[in-house]
């Protein structure tokens, strides 16, 4: 109790003592003693002295001061007296006047020019301005002349506790791991006080917790927040709201305070193991589910979050460890059970698994609280499904000899329905794999038979696909590949590998090898080929050549004698029998052509042709062929030239079915004028049908029968065209059956001396009104009506 009472008295009296210490010196500031007074510069004190004495004696100021003090925020009915200026030159009369200048002079601070008292006229705030620098001077009241030099002094504003602490960075947020030990650092807060930190305790701060106990504590002077309780569990409470107070005056009574909030969040640590939501899971799955498909999901819950909640799943026991697998879903943290191998309802109908979930990241600080894992039992029931047929083998390999008979069985495939119902199976061949339809299959028992002959030399392998279909459900289909290998039989005779032609030198020697040949056989015996060579029986005693068998199934042909001559015999034919070692053996006869040639002394063939003897001096065969080709080319050119000349002289004869009056003959050249009869053929104007007889009208049936007029004799090409046209015109005018009445007769030639002149308007030099159409009545009955119309038109114009 005495200690508590003493502390309370100190809280009350300390501010009062501080106020008394700071205010009294400024109000009752005593004059400085003589030892503190500096020399004065009064002219009156120096007026009776000599010049030498002026140099030796220094003038002394009668008053001086360092600083004055005024309390901030002081207010009252009267201005506060800050201090008094006085000089010993002042005898007490009114002749001396005090002047004040500087910071706030005349506004904030006012001086009594008679007494030198300085008053503060306004409330001062140390936080705005802590001190003021002013200048004081004593002058003569009458003349305003300085009695002393100006002196500078400072008025300091003394601080009082008028500002509360503030947390400029608040509110605060901090984190600390859950399950931390007592004293674990959380964060640090900082408050500021605008009061003077040097003078008194106005800025001395002390921190404390108003809310947040007993979970956290704070250091009073450093403001470091720490944990105060051990094993705080995030899963129980994750966030805490703490209120911090900062109080000045050292935390004593009467001090000002400020508060802030700190939100403290507990971060997660892996202190909880995973736990399955249930201990037993049941799943059912169809037996025909595809590999890798999900069957079901299991879930192990973990109260932790983030990385600490991640779990891995594994199958640790059970009769389906090789059938199923379990993986983790990274998004949901579920365990997904998938199928690894096919299921068969008929073989096994259920499986029991034991799965385990374990944390991926384990905190060693909490390993003693483990184990961080959990187990659960999973039962999987397999349900029956209508499965497709199953072949006895995934692939089949069959062998057949290439000489196998048609419809012979070359193999068999089998399949069954794995379902309990056991549906019958029908077999077929996928014809896309047997386009030539070389094989057939029995739909009931799966026996494969040969449909067409085989040839190993053409195709050694045949790959077909057999299809098995359930008779009760045609959608259940299975396929299996069948490879058929064709085995070889000796059905091909050997023969020369190529068409050989041997060359024999006329100067060859007896026993000389003329040619070495080899044979091939399309068959492929197991022990390889072995060929036998021989001559025909009638040529065994051939006087010219003999044969010799070599290693490697090759044969050499040798000459028995020398002196072969091209003039005597140019080519020799040597038949050779080639036999193989097959069962039964096969043989063939190949003929080797041996040509006699002229060779150099070292045996190089130079010429094998007989013309070297026939034309030793004349031209060669190639030159003769070239000359013959040139002659043939010249003959072709001559024939073409004659044909073109004959075609050019043929007259232009009109076909029988064409009528000259119904055709327009066009020429690209103008010719030599109307007198030129050579520019075209006059025969084009002749009508062969009109010459020979009557040409009936084709557009209408004539009203009366007109006897065919006597045909004219053919007109020679040299006849006058003008006379010819006039004759034709006269016949057309008097023949009522001449086709047609309203048609225009078109001729390619007008003739000479036309009465009407040209009908072209381009050559008319007069207008229509100046023309005389009387000549139309002279053209015959065909133009009579036209002449009357134009005559009427002319009479109308005159009227």
TrEMBL record:
UniProt keywords, alphabetically: Calcium, Cell adhesion, Cell membrane, Cleavage on pair of basic residues, Glycoprotein, Membrane, Metal-binding, Repeat, Signal, Transmembrane, Transmembrane helix
GO terms for biological process, alphabetical: adherens junction organization; calcium-dependent cell-cell adhesion via plasma membrane cell adhesion molecules; cell migration; cell morphogenesis; cell-cell adhesion mediated by cadherin; cell-cell junction assembly; homophilic cell adhesion via plasma membrane adhesion molecules
Domain of life: Eukaryota
Topology versus the membrane: Single-pass type I membrane protein
GO MF, any single term: calcium ion binding
Listed SUPFAM superfamilies: Cadherin-like
Cellular component GO terms, alphabetical: adherens junction; axon terminus; catenin complex; synaptic cleft
CDD domains: Cadherin_repeat
Main location: membrane
Residues annotated as domain Cadherin: 87-167, 168-276, 277-391, 392-496, 496-618
Short name of any one Pfam family annotated for the protein: Cadherin
Annotated TM spans: 613-642
Locations listed in the record: Cell membrane
Annotated Gene3D superfamilies: Cadherins (2.60.40.60), TCF3-CBD (Catenin binding domain) (4.10.900.10)
Entry-linked InterPro entries: Cadherin, Cadherin-like_dom, Cadherin-like_sf, Cadherin_CS, Cadherin_Y-type_LIR, Catenin-bd_sf
SMART domains: CA
UniProt function note: Cadherins are calcium-dependent cell adhesion proteins.
Protein name: Cadherin 8
Native source species: Chrysemys picta bellii (Western painted turtle)
Gene transcribed to yield this protein: CDH8
């Amino acid at each position: 109790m005495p200690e508590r009472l003493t502390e309370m008295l100190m809280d009350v009296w300390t501010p009062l003592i501080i106020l008394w210490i700071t205010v009294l010196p400024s109000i009752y500031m005593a004059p400085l003693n003589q030892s503190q007074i500096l020399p004065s510069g009064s002219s009156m004190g120096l007026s009776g002295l000599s010049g030498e004495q002026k140099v030796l004696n220094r003038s002394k100021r009668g008053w001086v001061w360092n600083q004055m003090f005024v309390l901030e925020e002081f207010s009252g009915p009267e201005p506060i007296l800050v201090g008094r200026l006085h000089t010993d030159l002042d005898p007490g009369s009114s002749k001396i006047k005090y002047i004040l200048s500087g910071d706030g002079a005349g506004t904030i601070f006012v001086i009594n020019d008679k007494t030198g008292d300085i008053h503060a006229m306004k409330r001062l705030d140390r936080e705005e301005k802590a001190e003021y620098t002013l200048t004081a001077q004593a002058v003569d009241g009458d003349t305003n002349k300085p009695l002393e030099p100006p002196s500078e002094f400072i008025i300091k504003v003394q601080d009082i506790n008028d500002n509360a602490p503030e947390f400029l960075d608040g509110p605060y947020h901090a984190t600390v791991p859950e399950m931390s030990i007592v004293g674990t650092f959380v964060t640090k807060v900082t408050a500021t006080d605008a009061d003077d930190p040097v003078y008194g305790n106005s800025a001395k701060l002390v921190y404390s917790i108003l809310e947040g106990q007993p979970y956290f504590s704070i250091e009073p002077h450093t403001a470091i927040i720490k944990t105060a309780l051990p094993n705080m569990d995030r899963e129980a409470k994750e966030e805490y709201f703490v209120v911090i107070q900062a109080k000045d005056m050292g935390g004593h009574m009467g001090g000002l305070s400020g508060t802030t909030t700190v939100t403290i969040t507990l971060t997660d640590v892996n202190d909880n193991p995973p736990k399955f939501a249930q201990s037993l899971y049941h799943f059912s799955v169809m037996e025909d589910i595809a590999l890798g498909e999900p069957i079901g999901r299991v879930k192990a819950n973990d109260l932790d979050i983030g990385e600490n909640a991640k779990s891995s799943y594994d199958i640790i026991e059970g009769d389906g460890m090789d059938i199923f697998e379990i993986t983790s879903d990274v998004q949901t943290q579920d365990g997904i059970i998938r199928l690894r191998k096919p299921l068969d309802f008929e073989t096994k109908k259920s499986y029991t698994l034991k799965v385990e979930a374990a944390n991926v990241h384990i905190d060693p600080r909490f390993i003693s609280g483990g184990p961080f894992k959990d187990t659960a039992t999973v039962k999987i029931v397999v349900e029956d499904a209508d499965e497709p047929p199953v072949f006895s083998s995934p692939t089949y390999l069959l062998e057949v000899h290439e000489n196998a008979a048609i419809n012979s069985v070359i193999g068999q495939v089998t399949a069954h329905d794995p379902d309990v119902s056991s549906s019958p199976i029908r077999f077929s061949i996928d014809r896309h794999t047997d386009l030539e339809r070389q094989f057939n299959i029995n739909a009931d028992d799966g026996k494969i038979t040969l449909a067409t002959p085989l040839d190993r030399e053409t195709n050694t392998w045949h790959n077909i696909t057999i299809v098995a279909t359930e008779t009760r459900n045609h959608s259940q289909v299975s396929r299996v590949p069948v490879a058929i290998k064709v085995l070889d039989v000796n059905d091909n005779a050997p023969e020369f590998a190529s068409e050989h032609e041997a060359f024999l030198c006329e100067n060859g020697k007896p026993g000389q090898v003329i040619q070495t040949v080899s044979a091939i056989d399309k068959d492929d015996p197991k022990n390889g080929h072995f060929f036998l060579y021989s001559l025909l029986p009638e040529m065994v005693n051939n006087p010219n050549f003999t044969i010799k068998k070599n290693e490697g199934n090759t044969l050499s042909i040798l000459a028995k004698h020398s002196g072969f001559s091209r003039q005597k015999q140019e080519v020799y034919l040597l038949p050779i029998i080639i036999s193989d070692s097959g069962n039964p053996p096969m043989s063939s006869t190949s003929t080797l052509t041996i040509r006699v040639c002229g060779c150099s002394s070292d045996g190089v063939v130079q010429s094998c042709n007989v013309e070297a003897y026939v034309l030793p001096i004349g031209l060669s065969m190639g030159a003769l062929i070239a000359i013959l080709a040139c002659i043939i080319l010249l003959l072709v050119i001559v024939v073409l030239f004659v044909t073109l000349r004959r075609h050019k002289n043929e007259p232009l004869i009109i076909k029988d079915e064409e009528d000259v009056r119904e055709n327009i003959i066009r020429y690209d050249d103008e010719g030599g004028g109307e007198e030129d009869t050579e520019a075209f053929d006059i025969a084009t104007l002749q009508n062969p049908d009109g010459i020979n007889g009557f040409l009936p009208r084709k557009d209408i049936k004539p009203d009366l029968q007109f006897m065919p007029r006597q045909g004219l004799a053919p007109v020679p090409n040299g006849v006058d065209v003008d006379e010819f046209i006039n004759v034709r015109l006269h016949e057309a005018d008097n023949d009522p059956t001449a086709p047609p009445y309203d048609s225009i007769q078109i001729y390619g030639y007008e003739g000479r001396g036309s009465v009407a002149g040209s009908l072209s308007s381009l050559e008319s030099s007069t207008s229509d009104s100046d023309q005389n159409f009387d000549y139309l009545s002279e053209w015959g009955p065909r133009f009579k009506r036209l002449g009357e119309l134009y005559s009427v038109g002319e009479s109308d114009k005159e009227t």
